[in-house]
């Protein structure tokens, strides 16, 4: 780092340490499943409040996913908008419609402590809320309802006013709905501008007469000479810089578009490119527009007179506190101090507010950080400058023994009781509202130190002692196999393990069904305090492959999973179109149902993709980091185009061929351009009617070839998704039940580990197994707790490691072993999982066991013998017809299109019909007296593997 940067960092840390004596030592934070700590109450005099609407019949109810904040022009009223999951079920298990809303919380902030004045319920929304200049009206975007709602101040508070329909029949893409996003009122109060996120346009509303006009933002639509050129897609935020000048942020295409607004409509002017994704716009004084830039962690400053970018301010930390520019701080909202000299930046991924001292171009800099709750999404400052307000979207979920999602057709009994618990992971993550007296001097230094400790900045935390272990592994391990599975909790799989903190009452996929995963946990390491960082597959797959998300994914995920619009955009598709392919012409070859319009999402850009180091656009995945380091990579099933496995005219587009290589039929197309050259086209991706056994056989075919050639890839990524389960009616090889699908997945994992153990690569290859998320089941410790398995040389044998680890730590471990990375801030600051390893333990072996239930299928299994056959007292599996009926109405074609509440309850009834669905949210430590605990749990599918004690 430079001499000046070092001096700034030293001053900040000195202020912080000096403040420690006067203000108190840094707080011990509450850990999140992303590996960071949160300390929202760290600032002296701060007030942290849940967003509680105050329902008389449900006083404990709180809302989740606060998404935006708006202050009245007089600075006395503050609005907080929620935009996320927020579905609630009553004692009967039925949806409480009046509670299953999004909310506008109206706070009086004239005094030191905010006072809630009223709470307004709205059906749907997405990010957009803004006051009119007179302060008597405000407007809220209607999200998937494709409208704007007006609220007008009256004697009894704010009352619903007009609704402005935006008039879109659909969004642009494949099976896409509209989505009204950010909005802003012109300075004269006469017009309202709305970003149409899914239509790549903006709408202008005449607030006098109600007339709505629209302007397409795509260059190829505006100018026929530019057909097929990218621009204007995923517009998210808007701002006015005068009554005739406005700006809109195109998140996917990384540009800020100037709009000239006249009496007769709008005209697109300059397009200002940004490094990173603009997600929030704020018009300041002195001809300046500020844009929060996600992915690259900065603020773009634009001269509104010339429409030129004059500077980009790094926002992750004061200069010198971080050694390299890495994404992950997640700058997503802004507020300007009343004197115009400072800018507050909400850093969602950092759980902090950055304080920026504004100066001449090139001189603006971060001077401190203030800790917040988990994932801040909005920030404001009172006009007198005395207090800062911030909202955050998430909180720790805690135990979820009744981990149900929504089922609008819920029945009675256990199903209703479970749903009424409202313990699905997105329901358990709640919003928070933080009020902070504005710190200065030593106080800001102390807060900066607190954030540095929370986020594990270098020099703020002690070395973890892993350096020697990881250096040893880096010198001895030359290959890593990274297996990703789908959606299971620790208790579901390993709750019946004879060691560890598992609840056998929740182990519906126990040893008899999953003997290989049990053997891996007992023979090597039982990680009973491992947490998946993501809530569901859209956040989970990003954490699993990039050790972070971006702001688009964090905002979109709960909305999509609640059925409030948007779509699953996180595995290379945007609006259900393959972004690994740059043009509609290429995409329609892969999916004939896709649009042929060349102006629909042109370019191989992915709005959900994290950037790599130094703003390397969209290259923030683990395979990108490995390839940047010159390492070889092979992909079996990660980030594939799932349209290949859809049905058309009643038939699968791509038949389920067991060994497609033999017939030369390609069954996999990546949805990432960077994976095109390194993916096996004969390895089938996410298709629940296809056994993992055959995925293993295709992997084995290539692995044998690599071994024979002496050129095995350094990083091998393998997707084995069958533990997700589904497609019971038409699964091949007689695998048509939950029991056989879980067993098939378990056996494939065991076979792969056995193959490596018996290969020439056994002494220099490590295998990591992880679930992308843990959403599809209950866990007595936390809704994020899941399984992680590690096998190979130098892994401890027969150990229980209860160190709290998470997805980011596992990814960091792979990076350290192979000697590449980091990809972003999270993995750069994480600690590798050194407690798992023993550098003296080089020898290892593994023999895969055949779960007994697979004998009911037609898979080509080896003959039973004492070594390979798992003993079992399981009854025969339910038939495919049983599970097809039990799962009626479920959509297994793509990850997480399930009605998870009905799904989980159907699983429980199928395995534990004699037991009540668990209800106690206790978080007990069950590591002691395991034998007695296991003996006390009756029923279920139990058994012991022959090789286990």
Notes on the protein architecture:
- The protein is of the alpha+beta class and 949 residues long.
- The protein is built from 20 helices and 43 strands.
- A five-stranded mixed β-sheet has the order 36-39-31-40-41, with helices on both faces.
- A hairpin with a 4-residue loop joins strand 16 (235-240) and strand 17 (245-250).
- The longest helix is centred in the first third of the chain and has 21 residues, at 3-23.
- The protein is globular, with a radius of gyration of 27 Å.
- The model is unreliable at 1-9, 18-23 and 939-949 (pLDDT under 50).
Brief write-up:
With 949 residues, the chain is of the alpha+beta class.
Topology record:
Layout: H1 3-23, E1 30-31, E2 37-38, E3 47-50, E4 66-71, E5 77-82, E6 102-108, E7 115-122, E8 129-131, E9 137-141, E10 147-154, E11 157-165, E12 180-185, E13 191-196, E14 201-206, E15 212-216, H2 219-222, E16 235-240, E17 245-250, E18 255-262, E19 265-273, E20 277-283, E21 288-294, E22 298-303, E23 308-314, E24 331-336, E25 342-347, E26 352-357, E27 365-371, E28 374-381, E29 387-394, H3 414-420, H4 425-428, E30 432-437, H5 442-454, H6 467-476, E31 479-485, H7 490-494, H8 515-523, E32 525-527, E33 530-531, H9 537-546, H10 551-561, E34 573-574, E35 577-578, H11 584-590, H12 622-628, E36 633-636, E37 647-648, E38 651-652, H13 660-663, H14 692-709, E39 715-719, H15 738-757, E40 765-771, E41 788-791, E42 799-801, E43 805-806, H16 807-818, H17 825-829, H18 880-886, H19 900-911, H20 930-936
Parallel strand pairs: 31-39, 31-40, 32-42, 33-43, 36-39
Antiparallel strand pairs: 1-2, 3-30, 4-5, 5-6, 6-7, 8-9, 9-10, 10-11, 12-13, 13-14, 14-15, 16-17, 17-18, 18-19, 20-21, 21-22, 22-23, 24-25, 25-26, 26-27, 28-29, 29-30, 34-35, 37-38, 40-41
């Amino acid at each position: 780092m430079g001499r000046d940067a070092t001096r700034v960092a030293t001053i900040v840390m000195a202020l912080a340490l000096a403040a420690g004596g006067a203000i108190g030592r840094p707080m011990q934070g509450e850990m999140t499943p992303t590996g960071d700590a949160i300390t929202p109450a760290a600032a002296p005099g701060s007030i942290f409040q849940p967003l509680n609407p105050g329902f008389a019949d449900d006083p404990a109810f709180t809302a989740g996913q606060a998404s935006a904040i708006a202050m009245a022009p007089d600075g006395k009223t503050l609005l907080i908008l929620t935009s996320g999951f927020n579905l609630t079920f009553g004692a009967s298990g039925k949806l409480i419609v009046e509670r299953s809303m999004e909310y506008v919380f109206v706070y009086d902030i004239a005094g030191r402590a905010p006072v809630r004045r009223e709470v307004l319920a709205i059906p749907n929304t997405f990010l957009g809320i803004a006051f009119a200049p007179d302060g008597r009206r405000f407007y809220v975007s209607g999200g998937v309802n494709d409208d704007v709602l007006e609220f007008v101040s009256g004697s009894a508070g704010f009352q619903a006013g007009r609704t402005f329909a935006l008039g879109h029949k659909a969004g642009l893409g494949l099976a896409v709905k509209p989505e009204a996003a950010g909005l802003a009122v012109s300075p004269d109060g006469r017009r309202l501008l709305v970003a149409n996120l899914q239509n790549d346009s903006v709408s202008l509303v005449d607030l006098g007469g109600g007339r709505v006009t629209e302007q397409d933002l795509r260059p190829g639509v505006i100018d026929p000479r530019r057909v097929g050129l990218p621009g204007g897609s995923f517009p998210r935020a808007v701002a006015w810089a005068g009554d005739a000048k406005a700006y809109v942020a195109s998140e996917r295409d990384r540009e800020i578009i100037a709009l000239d607004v006249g009496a007769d409509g709008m005209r697109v002017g300059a397009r200002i490119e940004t490094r990173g994704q603009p997600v929030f716009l704020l018009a300041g004084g002195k001809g300046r527009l500020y844009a929060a830039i996600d992915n690259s962690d900065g603020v773009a400053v634009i001269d509104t007179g010339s429409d030129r970018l004059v500077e980009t301010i790094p926002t992750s930390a004061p200069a010198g506190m971080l050694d390299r520019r890495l994404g992950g701080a997640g700058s997503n909202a802004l507020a300007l101090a009343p004197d115009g000299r400072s800018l507050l930046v909400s850093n969602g991924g950092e759980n902090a507010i950055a304080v920026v001292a504004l100066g001449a171009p090139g001189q603006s800099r971060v001077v401190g950080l203030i800790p917040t709750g988990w994932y801040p999404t909005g920030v404001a400052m009172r006009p007198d400058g005395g207090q800062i307000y911030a909202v955050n979207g998430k909180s720790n979920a805690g135990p979820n023994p009744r981990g149900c999602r929504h089922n609008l057709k819920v029945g009675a009994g256990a199903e209703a009781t479970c749903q009424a618990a409202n313990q699905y992971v997105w329901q358990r993550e709640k919003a928070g509202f933080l009020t902070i007296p504005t710190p200065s001097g030593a106080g800001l230094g102390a807060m900066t130190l607190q954030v540095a400790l929370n986020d594990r900045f270098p020099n703020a935390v002690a070395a973890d002692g892993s350096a020697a272990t990881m250096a040893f592994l880096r010198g001895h391990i030359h290959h890593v196999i990274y297996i990703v599975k789908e959606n299971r909790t620790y208790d579901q799989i390993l709750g019946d393990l004879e060691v560890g903190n598992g609840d056998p009452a929740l182990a519906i996929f126990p040893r008899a069904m999953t003997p290989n995963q049990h053997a891996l946990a007992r023979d090597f390491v039982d990680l009973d305090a491992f947490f998946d960082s993501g809530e569901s597959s859209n956040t989970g797959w990003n954490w699993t492959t990039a050790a972070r998300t971006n702001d688009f994914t964090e905002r979109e995920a709960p909305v999509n999973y609640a059925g409030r619009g948007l779509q699953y955009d996180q595995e290379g598709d945007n609006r259900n179109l393959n972004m690994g392919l740059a043009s509609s012409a290429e995409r329609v070859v892969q999916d004939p149902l896709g649009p042929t319009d060349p102006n629909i999402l042109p370019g191989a850009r992915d709005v959900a993709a994290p950037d790599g180091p130094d703003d390397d656009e969209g290259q923030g995945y683990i395979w990108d980091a490995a390839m940047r380091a010159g390492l070889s990579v092979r992909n079996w099933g990660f980030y594939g185009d799932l349209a290949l496995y859809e049905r058309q005219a009643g038939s699968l587009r791509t038949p389920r061929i067991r060994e497609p290589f033999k017939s030369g039929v390609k069954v996999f197309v990546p949805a990432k351009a960077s994976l095109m050259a390194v993916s096996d086209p004969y390895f089938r991706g996410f298709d629940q009617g296809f056994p993992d056994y055959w995925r293993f056989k295709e992997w084995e075919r290539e692995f044998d070839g690599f071994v024979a050639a002496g050129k095995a890839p350094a990083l091998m990524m393998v997707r084995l998704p069958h533990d997700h389960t589904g497609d019971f009616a038409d699964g091949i090889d007689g695998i048509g039940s939950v029991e056989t699908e879980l067993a098939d997945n378990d056996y494939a994992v065991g076979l792969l580990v056995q193959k490596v153990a018996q290969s020439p690569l056994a002494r220099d290859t490590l295998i990591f197994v992880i679930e992308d998320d843990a959403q599809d089941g209950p866990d007595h410790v936390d809704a994020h707790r899941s399984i992680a398995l590690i096998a190979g040389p130098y892994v401890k044998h027969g150990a229980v490691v209860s160190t709290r680890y998470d997805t980011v730590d596992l990814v960091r471990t792979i990076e350290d072993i192979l000697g590449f990375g980091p990809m972003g801030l999270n993995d750069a600051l994480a600690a590798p999982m050194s407690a798992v390893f023993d550098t003296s333990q080089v020898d290892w072996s593994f023999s895969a066991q055949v779960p007994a239930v697979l004998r009911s299928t037609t898979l080509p299994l080896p003959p039973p013998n004492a070594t390979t056959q798992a003993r079992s007292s399981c009854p025969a599996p339910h038939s495919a017809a049983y599970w097809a009926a039990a799962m009626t109405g479920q959509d297994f074609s793509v990850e997480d299109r399930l009605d998870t509440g009905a799904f989980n309850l159907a699983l429980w009834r199928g395995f534990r019909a004699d037991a009540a669905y668990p209800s106690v949210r206790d978080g007990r430590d069950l590591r002691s007296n395991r034998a007695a605990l296991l003996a006390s749990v009756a029923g279920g599918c139990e058994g012991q593997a022959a090789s286990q004690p």
